[in-house]
Design goal:
40% helix, 6 strands, six-stranded parallel β-sheet
Length: 173
Amino acid sequence: MGQGPPTVALVYDDDAYVETIERSRRGPPGSPLGLMGRQVAGKEFLDAYLHHGTWSELVALVRNRASRESLVRFCEVHPSSRSRVRALRVVEEARFHDSFFPAPPATLVYSPCPPDTRYAWARQHGGPGSFALSGVTHTLCSTEAIAQLCGLVTAPYERYDTLICTSRAVADM
């Protein structure tokens, strides 16, 4: 991994950063019933990162067009945009391989959930040691969250990758 200050690629999806007060009528069965703690935590993390981060470029790895548009809007109207000149580079998730190999635009890929095993496998194939992966746990009660944790055992994660556990119960699990 390179020297110098890290550039962060923020995996961005509205589901992790936008507070939803009401249950979506269009949502699939099993979708959130309303405001979720992980969304509050994600929004507050993003707000703090924009306010207090010392970075000059934020790389956003977005899952879909709607998330791209809302992130761009959020950054444009955020109070920190009036006092600092910063660049926002948006990378569509479908273009991950083209954008991150052979030279990644960021040294750290941060996910608002456990790191996605797809990025670990892609890194192993396309550029071992080219970037670190970091993620955070907010809940472990869903089938998807448990599957992500199982992937932590089998995917090619490196010693410099991190999983931030938000409670002792999560760390013990």
